[in-house]
From TrEMBL:
<feature type="domain" description="Glucosamine inositolphosphorylceramide transferase 1 N-terminal">
    <location>
        <begin position="27"/>
        <end position="231"/>
    </location>
</feature>
<dbReference type="InterPro" id="IPR056442">
    <property type="entry name" value="GINT1_N"/>
</dbReference>
<protein>
    <recommendedName>
        <fullName>Glucosamine inositolphosphorylceramide transferase 1 N-terminal domain-containing protein</fullName>
    </recommendedName>
</protein>
<dbReference type="InterPro" id="IPR023296">
    <property type="entry name" value="Glyco_hydro_beta-prop_sf"/>
</dbReference>
<dbReference type="Pfam" id="PF24793">
    <property type="entry name" value="GINT1_N"/>
</dbReference>
């Protein structure tokens, strides 16, 4: 879902108001699931990087949907440079550094956190470095505080993990600060955002029986190797567009993009779920 806000969005003051009162345009549905949208607003075009999932192979791939300034979809490209990973990919977290564009996709099946760099925008990417190995984690985000880089991830049991480094390409070390959290929904739901000397993070409400229900907006009060403290600022509920869930949100000065879900009964669901479990088990064996 995409909202063109023409620079009227001031985070976090009117974020919930815009989401609730502005009509969002859905992307054309081309795959079983289209999720985890990240965006680049460039040269009068909007580039939406996302996970495309189909039950044909029960594996997510990364694509980019391109819209013009009139919000018309003009192209959809598969991202190149990731096929050698042979795993499910999602959550294409993007960030700029020194004028270059980087991505860290979720590749938990490989038990690796891998950094990629854009070499031919938007389609072609190149592997730069394995930042963390021997760890199955999801939805990785990076941000910087007082000269220290933090890499925040979530285990398959929804436990938060934090690594630090002096620079992106350096050695990443895990830290275990004492957690002072506003809730236990830690899984990332978008790019951290800093404004007015404050850093905000977005996390998914993921209960055992309900994945991707809503999004929490939290202010990061303190983060060091000893202490982690956060404060709840707001909650984005699925009723903003009468859906059954929302679990990733990102924005630029002119656009807000988020994913949404609707629960639909299907007689084929049990077979699809069984096929998915078999394919995942097969791929996990490959990486063991």
């Amino acid at each position: 879902m995409v909202i063109k806000n023409k620079g009227e969005h001031i985070f976090p003051e009117n974020t919930l108001e815009i989401l609730s009162n502005t009509k969002a345009q859905p992307l054309n549905k081309k795959y079983t699931f289209q999720a985890d949208p990240f965006i680049i607003d460039k040269d009068n075009h909007l580039y939406i990087f996302y996970e495309a999932f189909s039950f044909r192979n029960s594996k997510g791939i990364l694509r980019c949907r391109i819209l013009n300034s009139d919000m018309l979809e003009i192209s959809d490209v598969k991202l190149k440079g990731f096929d050698d990973l042979h795993c499910h990919l999602s959550f294409p977290f993007l960030f700029h550094l020194d004028g270059k564009l980087f991505m860290i996709p979720e590749s938990s099946e490989r038990k690796e956190i891998i950094l990629f760099q854009s070499v031919d925008f938007p389609a072609r990417w190149e592997k730069v470095k394995v930042l963390v190995s021997d760890m199955a984690v999801t939805d990785n985000v990076i941000f910087e505080l007082e000269g220290i880089y933090y890499l925040v991830s979530t285990t398959m049991d929804y436990e938060m993990t934090i690594h630090t480094a002096d620079n992106i390409f350096g050695e990443w070390k895990m830290i275990s600060p004492t957690l002072d959290v506003c809730n236990y929904h830690h899984r990332s739901a978008g790019t951290p955002y800093s404004i007015n000397n404050k850093t905000y993070i977005f996390t998914q409400e993921c209960n055992p029986n309900e994945y991707g229900k809503s999004i929490y907006i939290k202010e990061l009060i303190k983060l060091t190797s000893q202490d982690y403290e956060e404060k709840l600022i707001g909650k984005i509920n699925p009723n903003i567009n009468n859906s059954d869930g929302i679990h990733t949100i990102n924005f630029t000065d002119n656009y807000i993009v988020y994913d949404t879900k609707r629960v639909i009964f299907s007689l084929l669901s049990p077979l699809k779920k069984l096929s998915y479990k078999i394919m995942v088990k097969y791929r996990n064996r490959r990486f063991t």
